[in-house]
Amino acid sequence: MSSHEEAVTALYAQRITLVKQLAEIDTNIKQLESKLHKESCSPDVPIYDELNSEDADVEKFRRPILNSLKDASGLRDALKVADACKQVQQLGPDGSEAVNAKIHFRNVFIHEAISLAPRLCMDPNGSELIRHIVSLLITGTTPARLYKAADAESYRLTKDSELMLLMEQLSADIFTLMCDTIGSRVAQKITDSLQTLEEFDMLSRSIVDHAADLAMDINGNHVLMRLVTSSRLNEFHKELETPEQKEMLDRIHKCIFKEITEKCVEISKNRQGCCVVQKCLQWAPEPYYSTMINTVLNNTLGLVQDSFGNYVIQFILDRHNDLGVSNPGVKSTDYTNHIIRQMLHHVAELSCNKFSSNVIEKCLKTASPDVRQLLVDELTEPQVLPKLLTDSFANYVIQTAISTASGEGQFTQLRDSIMPLQNLLKHSPYGVKIETKLSRRNRESSRRQAKKREASTSTYSTPSARPDHALNPSYMRNLSPAMPALMSADGAAAVGPPVTLANLPPDVSLFQQQHMMGSMQFVFHGSQQFIGIPGAQSPFMNVLGGNRTSHEYQ
To answer: By residue range, what is the domain housing residue 23?
Structure first.
């Protein structure tokens, strides 16, 4: 082994040793981080300090809530208490002392959890507990008061909104909460639980300055989409009774959609934002819908070349018949034609782009035949077609154009433009696919033409159904009086004067087959030869007689 080989081997051994040491260091770091996280989530001393600072009644309500932050066992105990509160809530007040005591326990436990919500929402265990409690909260039009253990009102169920009370407790950190991986789940649960205009108004006012940031955040976008698509929010316009309610609904829509509408192009180019814009195009009311879609359409050329913006344009192409249906005041618009007009004279260039080529294919599939012809004309220009056939993205556009060609005219145009470039296709990795598309479409075209021919001749499928000129064409009509006829079995001529066939035995009987009788005229040239009759209609003559087998004489 040479010295260089020994050096390489030694270096490989050293690298393996270093990799093992790094793996051990990574393991130690993860263990320490886990311990630090547990200590930060469940600090023992502060918790007991809090408990000792309150009276004994408060301690029994707070202890299970704070213990849920420590471990899974504490969480299970807290969830059991929450389930017990749910059963109490289902009983309802009956005036008895026992039931009132249970209601008191339910109210104080839930309100203590609400007071600790900012801490609970950021913790994995605490967020699960608070989400469980959100489903128990009472909804209403005014915020509920935070009950303490000594409050006399805590012995009866409130009629005010405990959900609004929770949002008040979280209002200072609501944006941070929505952008947090754990906290966003709590925010989504709160959004799904909203029932009244006042509750929607409180939540929407808390995000009025952060709507665009939420739309582009990996966690916050889920909260915003839940709010935009809330079925309850979209039903309020049917229930409005007073001008104040209509004004409140308009304010909610403004808080949610105004900033998104103003920045919809920027948001559309974001990974999460493009999904939010699609939801807004489905659910946004006027005037936000019209403003948003017009802004998007006017920026088509830039969006189709963006890695995320192209999905917004494709969404409009896919849903162009459904968009605007929820807004009665919106006029019907052909969004597909609008998009294609923006891309005309750039079709070849866009077809070679990774993202916009998908949009061109979608346009070929959804456009009307006349508009599709404009795209085909640009794709078949001689100076760009060779590049399109060999491009890694544009070749798929050509394949789609072949598959979606309207009628024989467009297909013929594509085929006649591509066939002279067959040598180019042979050296391209995509040439086989294009040739396969052409041959398949060509076979389909041939089958359609064959079916048309069959349909045009189906009315003449039997001789009796054909007109006279089909069986006796004009160039043969002058010969009809001179046509001889075969002799029937009794010696009588079937049609015209009799004719004698030479070189036949005298005991042979000649006859004309039944289906030829009176319908087929013959012209003999030489000895028993038919002329001037189409092959499909050419009859044959059998000569039978005596003990002899069948023979054909020609």
So the answer is: 1-37
The verdict on 166 and 198 lying in the same domain is no
Residues 132 and 81 in one domain: yes
Q: Are residues 154 and 270 in the same domain?
A: no
Q: Report yes or no on 470 lying in a domain.
A: no
Report yes or no on 120 lying in a domain.
yes
The structure's pTM equals 0.70
> What's residue 177's pLDDT?
93
Residues 237 and 296 in one domain: yes
Residue-level pLDDT at 502:
55
Helix (H) or strand (E) holding 136: none
Which of 487, 509, 490 has the alpha carbon at shortest distance from 498?
487
Residue 325 lies in a domain: yes
Residues 59 and 136 in one domain: yes
Whole-angstrom distance, CA of residue 480 vs CA of residue 162: 106
Angle between helices 44-53 and 56-67 (to 10 degrees): 160
CA distances from 96 to 83, 91, 106 (A): 21, 12, 15
For residues 223 and 302, membership in a common domain is answered with yes
Long-range contacts, stretch 79-83, CB < 8 angstroms, 24+ apart: 79/128, 79/129, 79/132, 81/109, 82/109, 82/129, 82/132, 82/133, 82/136
Number of domains in the chain: 5
Judge whether 469 lies within some domain: no
Q: What is the pLDDT of residues 162-219, one digit of tens each?
A: 999 999 999 888 999 999 999 999 999 999 999 999 999 999 999 999 999 999 999 9
Alpha carbon distance 81, 84 (integer Å): 5
Are 48 and 32 members of one domain? no
Query: 460, 424, 480: which is closest to 537 by C-alpha?
Result: 460
Instruction: Please choose, from the candidates 198, 244, 209, 207, the residue with its C-alpha nearest in 3D space to the C-alpha of residue 228.
Output: 207
CA 550 to chain CA centroid, Å, is 71
109 burial level (CB within 10 Å; 0-12, 13-18, 19+): buried
Phi-psi region of 149 (alpha: psi -120 to 50; beta: other; left: phi over 0): alpha
**Is residue 189 a contact partner of residue 131, using CB atoms and an 8 Å limit?**
yes
